[in-house]
Amino acid sequence: MQKYFGPKKLSSVVEKVTQPAIKEQGYLLFKLTSYWHVIVGQKLAEICFPIKLNFPPQSSKDGILYLEINNPGFGLEIQANEASIIERISGYIGYQAIARIKLIISVKKREQKRQSPAIQENINNESINSTIENIEDAEIRNILENIAKQIF
Predict the structure, then answer these.
(1) Helix H segments across the chain?
(2) How many domains does the chain have?
(3) Residues 66 and 123 in one domain
(4) Rounded-to-integer distance, Cα 41 and Cα 88, Å
(5) Partners of 101 in the beta sheet?
(6) What is the DSSP letter of 74?
(7) CA dihedral over 32, 33, 39, 43, signed as positive or negative
(8) What is the pTM for the complete model shown?
(9) pLDDT in tens, the chain (152 residues)
(10) Given CA atoms 37, 41, 46, 52 in this order, what sign does their dihedral have?
(11) Angstrom distance (rounded) from CA 100 to CA 87
């Protein structure tokens, strides 16, 4: 016969699940990564993400936060907003933990091989035509065809 222990507190379950991540990253980085979109806002959270946090020896202040960005063009925007980002982090954490931000550009290779433009155009035209051929209204069909050509 199985024993029923009843419902468990969510905090006890969450602690067991998050403990390995906290040990690996450190509590502060774990907190930053968990609430990054809240701290910096959705726009900045989409273009950068904290991946590493270094502090001077025997200190929990004046740390360097490493942010990963996928597009080097966003580096200027991050640098322009560096003071604001540091201020937001300090406000969220409650003290001046971060002194500087360094950027790491992560260029992810595309795994799909591109087809030649002629083949790709032919495939797109065939798929567009087969999709919209059942539309009876000629005007709507032309509008959809033009939109599809602009997208593809």
Answers:
(1) 10-25, 27-34, 36-40, 42-47, 75-80, 82-93, 117-132, 138-151
(2) 2
(3) no
(4) 10
(5) 65
(6) G
(7) positive
(8) 0.57
(9) 566 566 766 666 666 666 665 665 577 888 888 889 899 988 888 889 999 898 888 888 889 999 999 888 888 889 998 999 999 999 988 888 899 999 998 866 444 444 444 444 555 667 667 777 777 888 877 777 777 666 55
(10) negative
(11) 11
Same domain, 67 and 133: no
Residue ranges making up the domain that contains 137: 117-151
User: Could you tell me if 50 and 86 lie in one domain?
Assistant: yes
Q: Is 8 within the bounds of a domain?
A: no
Residues 25 and 96 in one domain: yes
* Among 71, 90, 77, CA closest to 31: 90
Structure tokens at 128: 């567009």
